[in-house]
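Predict structure. Chain length: 53.
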Amino acid sequence: MFNRDKVQRTAAAIVAALVFSSVMVGAAVGPARALENAPAVYAQVQVADQAHG
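Prediction complete.
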């Protein structure tokens, strides 16, 4: 027969793993979604009309 304590621990571990993985996926997707609509800026160069010096 199954040990009830062991089954409860296993069920709790499965639930905790599911919650943990969903939180990790949410934490990874959140910043990616924030950058979804932002324009990509690779480099920025300021060009002056007149040379200094």
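Summary: The CA atoms of residues 1 and 15 lie 23 Å apart.
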